[in-house]
Amino acid sequence: MPSISRSPLKEQKIGNLNQGSKASNKSLDRKHWILQQRRSLPIASAERKLVDEVRKNDTMIIVGETGSGKTTQLPQYLFNAGFCRDGKVIGITQPRRVAAITVAKRVAEECDVQLGQKVGYAIRFEDATSGSTRIKYMTDGLLLREALLDPILSRYSVIIVDEAHERTVHTDVLLGLLKKVQGARLKQHKLDKPYANNVVKFDNECHSSNTKFSPLKLIIMSASLDAKGFSEYFGGAKAVYVQGRQYPVVILYTYNPEPDYVDATVITIFQIHLDDNPGDILAFLTGQEEIELVDMLVHERLKQLPEHSRNILTVPIYSSLPSDQQMNVFRPTPFNFRKVILATNIAETSVTIPGVKYVIDPGVVKSRYYNPVTGMESLIIMSISKAQALQRSGRAGREGPGKCFRLYPESEFWKLIDSTVPEIKRCSLSNVVLQLKALGFDDIIGFEFMDKPSRSAIKQSLQELYLLGALTDDCKLSDPVGIQMARFPLDPIYSKALILSREFRCLEEMLIVVAMLSVESIFYSPREKLEEARSAWKKFSSPDGDHLTLVTVFRAAIEYREKSRAATNKEKSIDKSLSRWCRDNFINNRSLKHALDVHSQIKVYLEQMDMSLSSCGDDVLQFRRCLTASFFLNAAEKQPDGSYRVKANGQNVQIHPSSVLFRAKPECIIFTELIQTNQIYVRSVSRAWMPELSKYYDAES
Ligand code: CDP
Ligand code: MG
């Protein structure tokens, strides 16, 4: 059995840091270390074989253990083998933004180039590429948007669909689209003449018409051993397996179900820290809020330990974490410290963090869930699948034997479903339908999905899009509303809200609302300071509801930032003072920063579409009218027992206690978020504007 120790390479790294060697030596050491690490990856010995196979096959499936080097190495192998000749690009899609960013940064470092040059990334609202980028990491959603402008993806010689086993809705749509694109490119190649619009059945204009078209190489990468489904979907495409390296992992279960897995996670972290050997801990949690809660609880309990046992370093990682903080998880653990990584399921397969020896798995994940009866989507915390549980425990055995603490009894494990249901079967399809329509696929029911969503779910989305004005009577994309809606990288209902708010002269306010709603939880409420937090939020609170409250918070933050800017021009000091403002006001600093970022990015789209910002000023009725007109599908009426009934589908919901309208309970509300715990709650709630609402529901009631 392999011995329990950190790899010698890692020790070498820690040693170097402690010796405080000169900068140039340090960077040489780092380069040397990275090179050695690359060579020792399981995929390294398969380089030639993989390149040969890609040359021979237009479509291929590569299956390999997480951490074997697929994402970081394969694009480099293909680049070195000449797949970027003629200025073509290798595109690698990821289901998650964090993975796209962190991997691109890592590969840029491995190639010893500046990020954004040869190696870059692009995600929604952020583009770190240039004309010289040849290895481009991006989210799968982003590549779908690129296809709107360039239907045969002519810049790419190779497209790697990574993490395909995750089967996100974007991945599934992308697979269907790429199949078509590949066919079109091959046809063009055989004709061997420049691309002409009439060859491919797409509506859009092609922006690069003078290049000769080589066939598109398509590589599907997956961490799950089941390559059959992908292979069949691509007409019997070849599957290649990359041998992984997996040390034994001891699995421990609880005797009884845990009533509070957050608490159980914290207790387990300390049990490991105090009783077990050195080695980093990876704990799987469901989202930003939970991660921040565990982080706080760990620090609180650390204070009760003797000084010499306080050597824990916590690092969070989740999708909306600002990109400057994402790389923190990859920093080497300081000497004698134990790193505790608090992660969402992003660390299951997308991102591999070295040094992990202990995994804590509460067995839950936050997922999108669509109720086909009500036509509403919500985020719910649900049990993971057996496949996910195995992936999670596998993270503990990458560098040596490890331990996985499953915070549930073994009998529960056997009750889990074998593998996760593809997202396309459990999410709202409005966005998918809108995108496919914009890509020129009119027959959605006939689209070749790997797993077909139900007919009724497709019909429901068509109906929703029709009600939002995105589709015409004969189910075509409407001009201009549908076309404009498809251009925004947002959920159709939010795009519609922005478009409508121009008419209502409150685009400025709606833009803030959309930006603030696109991040997880703006308000930060530590358990023990809840009252203090509530009184701090009072000054932002609007009697009209949560949406205008969010507008007030955003504007107060901007005002404060501008004041600091007047006092100093140092960005770092401005940043620091905004963080202080957030702390004083119990506002989540990370979420606010993210919202500021999203705000400025959507603004660029608005400018490109010639939509100028106008404010309704003090005329809040105008804003309420607009909110009602935009989200009329999310209107709910009060019932005698104080609960609410959603007008569109009769569902019974409650106002979430965090809403400013929780006590006021107005007769009729508009909500923009549905959360399902033991109850169904609506969060982000405002007073509806009845005269506007009656336009949509009069006939029915
Ligand atoms: O894609 P796959 O799971 O096969 O592996 P990968 O993401 O290419 O990772 C290969 C190795 O690079 C792993 O050992 C990671 O720990 C390391 N890596 C890293 O140190 N820093 C990053 N930002 C990304 C990867
Ligand atoms: Mg990978």
Helix and strand arrangement:
Layout: H1 8-19, H2 23-39, H3 47-56, E1 59-64, H4 70-80, E2 89-94, H5 97-110, E3 119-123, E4 126-128, E5 135-139, H6 140-149, E6 156-161, H7 169-191, E7 217-222, H8 228-233, E8 238-242, E9 249-253, H9 261-275, E10 280-284, H10 288-302, E11 312-317, H11 323-326, E12 338-343, H12 346-349, E13 356-361, E14 364-371, E15 376-383, H13 386-394, E16 402-406, H14 410-415, H15 430-438, H16 455-467, H17 481-487, H18 492-503, H19 507-517, H20 530-537, H21 546-567, H22 571-585, H23 589-608, H24 620-630, E17 635-638, E18 644-646, E19 652-655, E20 668-676, E21 680-687, H25 690-697
Parallel strand pairs: 1-7, 1-8, 2-5, 2-6, 3-5, 6-7, 9-16, 10-12, 10-13, 11-12, 13-16, 15-20, 19-21
Antiparallel strand pairs: 3-4, 14-15, 17-18, 17-20, 18-19, 20-21
Helix pairs in contact: 1-2, 4-5, 6-7, 9-10, 15-16, 15-17, 17-18, 18-19, 18-24, 19-21, 19-23, 21-22, 24-25
The structure holds cytidine-5'-diphosphate and magnesium ion.
Magnesium ion (MG) is lined by residues 70-71, 162.
